[in-house]
Amino acid sequence: MSLAARPGRFGSRFHNALYEMLGLDFVYKAFTTTDLAAAIGGVKALGIRGCAISMPFKEAVIPLLDRLDASAAAIDSVNTIVNDAGHLTGYNTDYSAVAELLNRAGIAAATPFVLRGAGGMAKAVAAALRDRGHRSGTIVARNEGVGRELARSYGYDWAPEAEGLDAALLINATPLGMAGADADRLAFSVDQVARAEVVFDVVATPVETPLMQAASRLGRQRISGADVAVLQALEQFVLYTGIRPDDGQVAKAAGLARA
């Protein structure tokens, strides 16, 4: 199952497609909740094997778990819960997905960046950038306390607004552009995109967010939230089942999930 403020369909379709391909007796359902503690209690009480965690629950869920894996403890953010006989362990597969995509894109560690956001996903991105050796970067967050603390933790600068900030790598780790109330909003201006080299939007739904559309029109290199969604969901699948699908099965499941 998954818990998110705005449940999407990608995770359900991706996981269920792989369960069917591999003949596994699992089912994946997406939910939202106004009572996170009760929802996590239900995971334990009902023996639900695993639960994906999305915005805005990635940090709030931590006190409700029995243990944090190193992947989640390092950044105080959880996107995956595994239930082992009533013992709930929190993991974070966002970090590994982001790091892998930055590596695939061939982005040099010397590349300066602007990262918009200060929540759980922003922490995963900031940690991946730091661990790749990026030294020049700015975290943009309107909440000064949260933004400054995140920037301080990873050795970066803080700014309250993205306006006027240029960098070769622009990263959106906020809901701006996500299906819903913020669907038409750009995380960075068109002028900022034009001056960038690489644009990374962690929003997975829709695939073509306003930011990704702007990057395409201007010929900028893109990294999409859909790519993050596939890689992090694959690692969740492995944690839940102990089985790693082959590349062909993953590609087919991703295609079905996006259809």
CATH topology of the largest domain: Rossmann fold
Q: Show unreliable segments.
A: none
Q: What is the count of distinct domains? A: 2
Q: What letter string, H or E per element, gives the SSE order?
A: EHEHEEHEEHEHEHEEHEHEHH
Q: What fraction, in percent, of the residue positions are helical?
A: 40-55%
Q: Architecture of the largest domain in CATH?
A: 3-Layer(aba) Sandwich
The CATH fourth-level homologous superfamily of the largest domain: NAD(P)-binding Rossmann-like Domain
Structural class: alpha/beta
Counting H and I runs of at least 4 residues, what is the number of helices?
10
Number of strands: 12
Physical arrangement of strands within the biggest beta sheet: 2-1-3-5-6-4
Envelope shape: globular
Mean pLDDT, all residues: 95
β-sheet strand percentage? 15-25%
